[in-house]
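Here is one such tokenized protein:
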Amino acid sequence: MTIVIVDIEHATHTCPVYPDGHPYDIRRTVVDVIPGGPCRAPVTVRCGEQTTRIPCHRHEPTKRQCGACRVIVTERTITTRTPNGTAA
């Protein structure tokens, strides 16, 4: 399985409607990608006389994909900032 590690930064502010604050800008930064390797269960697709084998992630829903084609996103850090730059 491919593992994607990300850092998330929320910029929040308060307003009359949401006095407790809410995020208005969310940024995600990809920190690292650990590849899962080649597909272990390629799918044969036929079109007329031609047959082509493609990786299962291009054809199958997530539940039926092999372990190498699945993607997992891991959040490394989540930072919340206010408009004046202070971390919450």
